[in-house]
Amino acid sequence: MWHLSIGGRRFALLTTNKIWCYHNKLESAIYNALEKAQRERERDLLFQVLELSPPISSPLAMELPPKVKNILLLDSEGKRIAAKYYSGDWPTNTAKEAFEKAVFSKTQKTNARTEVEVTALENNIIVYKFVQDLHFFVTGGEEENELILASVLQGLFDAVNLLLRGNADKREALDNLDLIFLCFDEIIDGGIVLETDANVIAEKAGINSIDPNAPLSEQTISQALATAREHLTRSLMK
């Protein structure tokens, strides 16, 4: 280290290496301070988010889309006409048949021809409605909203009635099973409710069931229009 005397006072002169050493230490200290400040800002922001977030047990945090476990269409003797299961609660055909039998036994003596009725079975909520010799059922978990399940059932009930032109009975249902299953698919996908408006369901199911080669005279107005559009599109693409 070198020394310099000025006015009788000695001053130490730093070598170039020591100057760089102090410079690096200062730079490191500044970097550490900035990094610490950044961590503190991130921590404060996280606390703010946690304070604003709903608790895990609150309805807002736990709200899930409504789910349907199955849709059943049985006849007046409890025999299956059409059914779709969206839950693994009944893994075998035997389990499904047993459930359908239990549902029918519990509801067959009730009057569900004017309004949707509700019952509980095996930790499930079941809504149902009858017309002629057809018994419609929609099943959801015990935590599901009854009104949503009822809207699903009513949408299916009315859509089938529209597609069968007011002649909803077992014979017509068996003759138009494709339409009924198309209704199922328009309403539910993997247990998630897609649509409950009967007019929309019936229109989509009707269009999806069109045979493009069928005479227009045998199709409904909406089907005929859809067929005409399809023929026009094909002709334009040639």
UniProtKB/TrEMBL annotation:
Pfam families recorded: Clat_adaptor_s
Topology with respect to the bilayer: Peripheral membrane protein
GO CC aspect terms: COPI vesicle coat; Golgi membrane
Signal peptide: none
One of the GO biological process terms: retrograde vesicle-mediated transport, Golgi to endoplasmic reticulum
Domain AP complex mu/sigma subunit span(s) in chain numbering: 68-203
Main location group: cytoplasm
Subcellular localization, as worded in the UniProt entry: Cytoplasm; Golgi apparatus membrane; Cytoplasmic vesicle, COPI-coated vesicle membrane
Keywords: Cytoplasm, Cytoplasmic vesicle, ER-Golgi transport, Golgi apparatus, Membrane, Protein transport, Transport
Domain of life: Eukaryota
Subunit and partners: Oligomeric complex that consists of at least the alpha, beta, beta', gamma, delta, epsilon and zeta subunits.
Role according to the record: The coatomer is a cytosolic protein complex that binds to dilysine motifs and reversibly associates with Golgi non-clathrin-coated vesicles, which further mediate biosynthetic protein transport from the ER, via the Golgi up to the trans Golgi network. Coatomer complex is required for budding from Golgi membranes, and is essential for the retrograde Golgi-to-ER transport of dilysine-tagged proteins. The zeta subunit may be involved in regulating the coat assembly and, hence, the rate of biosynthetic protein transport due to its association-dissociation properties with the coatomer complex.
Family per similarity comment: Belongs to the adaptor complexes small subunit family.
Protein name per the record: Coatomer subunit zeta
Organism: Brassica napus (Rape)
